[in-house]
Write a structure and sequence with these properties.
Elements: E1 15-19, H1 30-37, E2 41-47, H2 49-59, E3 69-73, H3 76-79, H4 85-99, E4 105-110, H5 114-117, H6 121-132, E5 137-142, H7 152-161, E6 172-176, H8 181-193, E7 199-202, E8 217-221, H9 227-235, E9 239-240, H10 248-262, H11 267-292, E10 296-299, H12 306-315, E11 320-326, H13 331-340, E12 346-351, H14 353-363, E13 367-370, H15 372-380, E14 385-387, H16 390-393, H17 402-423
Parallel strand pairs: 1-12, 2-3, 2-4, 4-5, 6-7, 6-8, 8-9, 10-11, 10-13, 11-12, 13-14
Helix pairs in contact: 7-9, 10-11, 11-17, 12-13
Length: 424
């Protein structure tokens, strides 16, 4: 497999760096997918009633099972530092673990910076871990929307886990990033057919499956927003396999090829394993590319998926990105995608929302990818939008989801065409 590189990619394109008013979703929402992934973990958000309402609204109502997240609500006097919040937190944790003996990992999730809640959750986690060991391991991370975008909650969670992962000298592949179970199973099956293993996953479904890490560990990321986790694994001695992210047929093939090269898989065997799923993915994407081809595209910064998705939409769907905004541009992670992204779009990092709204209006794109807070106002102005959050909650990785990924972008355009035709 050889990649048809553009004459000039975007790795060296100057980046417009903006530091102003942002429009982002809270990092606490990462708990919605993490608590489903880690079956014996519990996420206890330490914060206000507002945080509790946000989680309930984001996660919906759990009817058939008690959810594995909750909120330790700090009243106003706690937020002001006038009460001993540590004593109350210890009491809440003890009650929770008595009621839920199945919990093996407990995450204390800060909803605000420690300067606001007047509570050092890192020390609290160390104290509680010592009290409840070895049955329960207590860790902490921040999901504060003041400090993070919504996908960074996962990064903070996984990075918090890395220092306590067991040590190993074994040569193993560690795949890093939460995927829906069906997508993870497809990935593991492809790697097994290529003869690659053993394969470990972070985050694991259960604490007993927690991966080990050491100097012979090589790791591949499946999410582009895991910069802190990447750095934490490198500090543990693991080595990163750089690759485009597995979105679409081309991205998936390039990701698998990078891993296969690391493990000495022959070209012939690689082609034998991937030819059929590649053909299915190409056919599925082609059905949507008819709608997307030559349409212009504008990304507001939201999920950190923007650069790999722009690469997929430009190269496999024929779209023309005008601006690709991302909250953080980590070239060590998305550099291979930048190499494949054809020259042309503005690359922006961070956000000054008013300035970017002005640029979007001047560009007048056919499709705008943005957060929930901007979508309705832009639709009211006549622009067609795609909610960025759907790209995180929908299975979109690897071959079998390539058509679904393209469909997320083609549907708003088809809907607009149908509505325009009906009005006519």
């Amino acid at each position: 497999m050889s990649l048809d590189l553009p004459a000039k990619g975007c790795r060296e394109t100057p980046v417009l760096k903006e530091r102003g008013q942002r429009e982002v979703f809270c990092g606490l929402t990462s708990i919605v997918w993490l608590h489903r992934k880690m079956q014996d973990a519990f996420f206890l958000v330490v914060g206000s009633r507002t945080c509790a309402h946000l989680l309930q609204a984001a996660a919906g109502v759990m009817i058939f099972a008690e959810p594995r997240f909750g909120t330790a609500i700090l009243e106003e006097k706690d937020l002001a530092g006038l009460a001993d919040a540590n004593t109350e937190l210890d009491r809440e944790v003890a009650r929770l673990l008595e009621r839920r003996p199945d919990i093996r990992q407990l995450f204390l999730v800060g909803s605000c910076p420690s300067e606001v809640i007047k509570l050092d959750l890192h020390r609290a986690a160390e104290r509680l871990s010592a009290i409840h060991a070895p049955h329960v391991r207590v860790l902490n991370f921040t999901g504060s929307g003041i400090e993070t975008t919504f996908t960074q909650g996962e990064d903070a969670c996984l990075a918090a886990m890395v220092p306590s992962l067991p040590a190993t000298q074994a040569r193993e592949l560690l795949v890093v990033g939460a995927l829906p179970d069906v997508v993870e199973d497809q990935m593991v099956d492809l790697l097994a057919k290529l003869g690659i293993g053993p394969v470990r996953i972070l985050p694991a479904h259960r604490s007993a499956e927690t991966p080990a890490v050491g100097p012979n560990t090589v790791f591949a990321l499946v999410q582009p927003f895991l910069g802190d986790t990447h750095a934490a694994l490198v500090r543990r001695g693991a080595r990163h396999i750089p690759a485009p992210f597995p979105f679409g047929e081309e991205g998936t093939t390039a990701w698998l090829r990078a891993v296969a090269d690391e493990f000495g898989v022959s070209r012939d065997h690689f082609e034998a394993v991937t030819t059929a799923p590649r053909a299915r993915a190409q056919k599925a994407v082609a059905a949507h590319a008819e709608t997307l081809r030559d349409k212009t595209l504008f990304f507001f910064p939201d999920s950190q998926l923007e650069i790999p998705l722009a690469r997929f939409l430009a190269r496999e769907c024929g779209m023309r990105p005008l601006e690709v905004g991302t909250p953080y541009l980590h070239k060590e992670l998305v550099g291979p995608d930048l190499d494949l992204l054809p020259e042309g779009p503005v690359l922006s990092e961070g956000q000054d929302v008013e300035l970017q709204l002005d640029r979007q209006a001047a560009a007048a794109p056919d499709l705008t990818v943005c957060g929930l807070g901007l979508a309705n106002p832009l639709e009211a102005r006549g622009f067609t939008t795609k909610w960025a959050i759907e790209l995180v909650f929908t299975p979109v990785h690897f071959y079998e989801q390539a058509g679904d990924l393209a469909g997320l972008f083609s549907r708003p355009l088809r809907r607009k065409a149908l509505l325009k035709g009906g009005a006519a």
